[in-house]
């Protein structure tokens, strides 16, 4: 997502790292100021997984992205860069936060875990309008383990909609990093992270496995809730400020239409607004969704111009006082309720 990506320069990061390491040279490289082993997560979805897996173990989990901060806009302070180098484990998602990617690359953390390597990334954007899911789409896709191999085709959009809706998040294959919005793929990441954390803290391996099994069970149940909840719907199409919900759409046979492509703050062109009007009418769309951490100007403009309602569909990049819940599961269920209403699911 190209939203005011402000990076510290390589020189600044290197200098900040050196300064922080010098200041912390007397400290243990495996613990924070409280003497606890430390895991540093890049932003909320990674923090949530780490905390769920670690559970009651005497390991501290910190995040670089504080509540209310749009993750893509994150600027790292020298102290945060230093935290990366003194941590036992750094958990991040390459391609989502360039400032973090660069800092992690220069850090001396013992274990660097890129969640993007723990599952398969795909390219997503707005759906190819007119894509026919057929009867299967309304029954809720059961993709299993092989249902997401769409890197070459799938829903990648090649310029059919003005504004460029293919994600451009970097990463090894330019894939969409929003994997946590698909409970099944999030479970894959959880399983991989469990193994990495067990390598870092072998004494807690059994507890981590127990916690991971419980988490995967909850994510599997959530997936079933989405499948059942979206089964009988009047339309497959939903409209969002930007195309962050590709994995969710793919999993449940939906078509997402991003107003302004990958950037939630970009203004939609008159041509795109007209196209959204046509899509909304043709596909019986009732709602334009905006987000909690990003500007909702585009969504409100389109809603006013099209006569549609507005609602919230949260990409869960962070939890704040505007979130429709206190954790990942609560907000995902709020997303499900919003989608059911917007899609006419019964």
What's the rounded overall pLDDT mean?
Answer: 77
- Write down how many β-strands occur, each being a DSSP E stretch of 2 or more residues: 8
Taking Cα atoms only, what radius of gyration do you get, to the nearest Å? 20 Å
Taken from the alpha-carbon principal axes, the silhouette is: globular
Give the end-to-end Cα distance, rounded to a whole number of Å: 34 Å
Order of helices and strands: HEHEHEHEHHHEHEHEHEH
Model regions low in confidence, pLDDT < 50 over at least 5 residues: 1-32, 128-173
Main-sheet strand order equals: 2-1-3-4
Strand content: 5-15%
Note the topology.
Blueprint lengths: L9 H14 L14 E4 L2 H11 L5 E4 L14 H9 L2 E4 L5 H9 L4 E4 L19 H6 L43 H18 L4 H25 L7 E4 L5 H7 L2 E4 L11 H13 L4 E4 L6 H10 L2 E4 L15 H16 L3
Parallel strand pairs: 1-2, 1-3, 3-4, 5-6, 5-7, 7-8
Short overview:
With 346 residues, the protein is α/β, with parallel strands linked by helices. Helices cover 40% and strands 9% of the residues.
Features:
346 residues, alpha/beta, four-stranded parallel beta sheet, 11 helices, 8 strands, 9% strand, globular, disordered N terminus
Give your account of this protein's structure.
With 346 residues, this protein is of the alpha/beta class. It is built from eleven helices and eight strands. It has helices at residues 10-23, 44-54, 78-86, 98-106, 134-139, 183-200, 205-229, 246-252, 270-282, 297-306, 328-343, and strands spanning 38-41, 60-63, 89-92, 111-114, 237-240, 255-258, 287-290, 309-312. The strands form two sheets. A four-stranded parallel sheet has the order 2-1-3-4, with helices on both faces. A four-stranded parallel sheet has the order 6-5-7-8, with helices on both faces. Helix 8 (246-252) links the parallel strand 5 (237-240) and strand 6. The radius of gyration is 20 Å and the shape is globular. Mean pLDDT is 77; it is low at 1-32 and 128-173.
């Amino acid at each position: 997502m190209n939203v005011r990506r402000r990076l510290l320069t390589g020189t600044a990061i290197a200098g900040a790292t050196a300064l922080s390491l010098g200041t912390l040279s007397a400290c243990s490289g495996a613990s924070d100021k409280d003497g606890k082993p430390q895991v540093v997560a890049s932003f909320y979805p990674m923090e949530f997984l780490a905390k769920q897996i670690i559970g009651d173990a005497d390991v501290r989990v910190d995040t670089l992205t504080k509540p209310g901060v749009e993750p893509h806009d994150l600027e790292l302070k020298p102290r945060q860069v230093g935290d990366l180098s003194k941590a036992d484990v750094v958990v991040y998602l390459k391609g989502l936060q360039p400032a973090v990617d660069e800092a992690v690359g220069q850090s001396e953390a013992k274990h660097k875990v890129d969640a993007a390597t723990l599952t398969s990334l795909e390219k997503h954007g707005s759906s190819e309008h007119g894509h026919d899911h057929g009867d299967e789409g309304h029954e809720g896709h059961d993709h299993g383990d092989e249902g997401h191999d769409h890197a070459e085709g799938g829903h990648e959009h090649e310029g059919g909609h003005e504004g460029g809706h293919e994600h451009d998040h970097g990463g090894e294959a330019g894939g969409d990093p929003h994997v946590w919005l698909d409970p099944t793929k999030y479970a894959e990441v959880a399983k991989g992270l469990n193994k990495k954390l067990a390598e870092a803290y072998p004494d807690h391996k059994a507890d981590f496995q127990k916690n991971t099994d419980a988490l995967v069970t909850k994510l599997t149940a959530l997936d079933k809730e989405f499948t059942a909840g979206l089964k009988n719907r009047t339309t497959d199409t939903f409209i969002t400020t930007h195309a962050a919900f590709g994995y969710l759409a793919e999993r449940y046979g939906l078509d997402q239409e991003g107003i302004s492509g990958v950037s939630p703050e970009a203004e939609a062109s008159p041509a795109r607004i007209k196209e959204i009007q046509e899509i909304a009418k043709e596909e019986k769309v009732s709602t334009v969704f905006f987000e909690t951490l990003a500007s909702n100007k585009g969504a409100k403009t389109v809603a006013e111009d099209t006569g549609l309602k507005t609602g919230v569909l949260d990409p869960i990049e962070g939890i704040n006082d505007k979130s429709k819940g206190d954790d990942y599961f609560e907000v995902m269920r709020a997303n499900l309720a919003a989608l059911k209403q917007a899609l006419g699911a019964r």
